[in-house]
Design a protein that fits this description.
- Helix 2 packs parallel to helix 3.
- Helix 2 links the parallel strand 1 and strand 2.
- The strands form two sheets. Strands 7-6-5-4-3-2-1-8-9-10 form a ten-stranded mixed β-sheet, with helices on one face.
- The radius of gyration is 20 Å and the shape is globular.
- Helices cover 32% and strands 15% of the residues.
- By secondary structure, it is an alpha/beta fold.
- The two termini are 21 Å apart.
- It contains eleven helices and twelve strands.
Length: 358
């Protein structure tokens, strides 16, 4: 196909997706249900969206989690639902395996995000026995960079050992790397390492202006860094190791579908719902938590009721709330971008790729 034919096809696909998004806003479908198991963490990451370690609330009692899982099973189709376990570091909970065994017995498919520092051969085996289908382990640079970024000496070695312990088991193993201005030069070296390991995919995402990263402008990517990142992903995707960008952001006609297997759609509140560690009900857990974004609390509301009757803030395009976005030529396909980098006070997008990639 010629370049013009490819662009025309992408426009056709994106218009179909835009029409589907309108329908999804009217009839959302829960496909990813996140539970923040704890805000406790044994690392102190420079980019943490939840600012784990800064504010600690008590973990949700296992009985509350059991009740929520029972309710979700009763009201949603588990055949199209993935239970996503995150934190903090989920494995810090002493009752972690009891909770996940309960989820497995209810029929949930589940995956987990972890820093990997608490995973050895025995834990890797127990994760499989408890029904885990996928796991994402964070490696944010070569050893010295990763340890500095994560605030713990020796973190890199422990996380790499965890990956090796996880690989032999019957679940998908993904490595996630957050790219910053300070580690972007290490991407090729990391590719060389991961390309020799039998992982299922490498998810490469840019650091984003959210959470603790809002205070670290020295880590944020410059426009040239962003271009370098996407050139790197496009180059490596044609090689053996599956490399993918994250789900975030509209990237323009040249880059969409070139760095991941799908076009951009922010699924917060449409496919994605979450329970925070304090019981708050939200869409995506990466979204800024305030009176606008929090839709209820599991201690006084049923998740199902909140999902069906609230979430209005997530079920109309963000672009409608911003003068900048309303007048943008890409608004039909972008719709205002990702909800987790939206500034809900200023009602504008903190990270936009217009004038960078397109």
């Amino acid at each position: 196909m010629t370049y013009d034919e490819i662009i025309a096809l992408k426009k056709q696909h994106l218009q179909q997706l835009a029409d589907y998004h309108k329908e999804l806003c009217r009839k959302p479908r829960l496909k990813e249900f996140f539970i923040e198991m704890t805000q406790r963490c044994n690392e102190y990451c420079a980019h943490c969206g939840s600012r784990c370690g800064d504010v600690i609330s008590e973990d949700l009692p296992k009985e509350v989690i059991f009740s929520v899982l029972e309710e979700v099973k009763e009201n949603f189709d588990l055949r199209e639902l993935l239970l996503c376990i995150t934190g903090g570091e989920p494995l810090l909970r002493k009752d972690f395996f009891e909770i996940m065994q309960y989820a497995k017995d209810l029929g949930f498919r589940w995956g987990m995000t972890s820093n990997g520092t608490l995973i050895d051969d025995d834990v890797a085996k127990k994760l499989e026995q408890s029904g885990m289908r996928s796991v994402s382990i964070s490696i944010d640079g070569l050893e010295a960079t990763h340890d500095t970024f994560r605030g713990v000496k020796g973190a890199y070695k422990k996380s790499m050992q965890a990956i090796q312990a996880l690989i032999p088991h019957n679940y998908i193993v993904q490595v996630t790397t957050v790219v910053t201005h300070q580690n972007i030069h290490e991407l090729d070296a990391l590719f060389t390492i991961f390309n020799t390991m039998d992982i299922d995919s490498w998810r490469v995402i840019g650091i984003e202006p959210m959470g603790r990263a809002l205070l670290r402008k020295d880590l944020l990517l410059t426009p040239e860094d962003q271009k370098t990142l996407f050139r790197f992903i496009m180059d490596k995707r044609i090689q053996n190791l599956p490399v993918t960008y994250g789900c975030s952001h509209y990237l323009g006609l040249d880059v969409e579908r070139e760095v991941r297997d799908h076009y951009f759609i922010c699924s917060a509140g449409l496919y994605v719902g979450s329970i925070a560690n304090n019981g708050d009900i939200l869409a995506c857990l990466d979204i800024e938590r305030n009176k606008k974004t929090i839709q209820g609390n599991i201690y006084k509301d049923r998740f199902t009721d909140v999902w069906k009757d609230r979430f209005d803030i997530y079920r109309s395009p963000l672009a409608q709330r911003s003068k900048i976005c309303r007048h943008c030529s890409a608004k039909e396909f972008c719709r205002g971008g990702a909800a987790h980098t939206w500034d809900y006070e200023e009602e504008k997008q903190r990270l936009c790729f217009k004038d960078i990639l397109f």
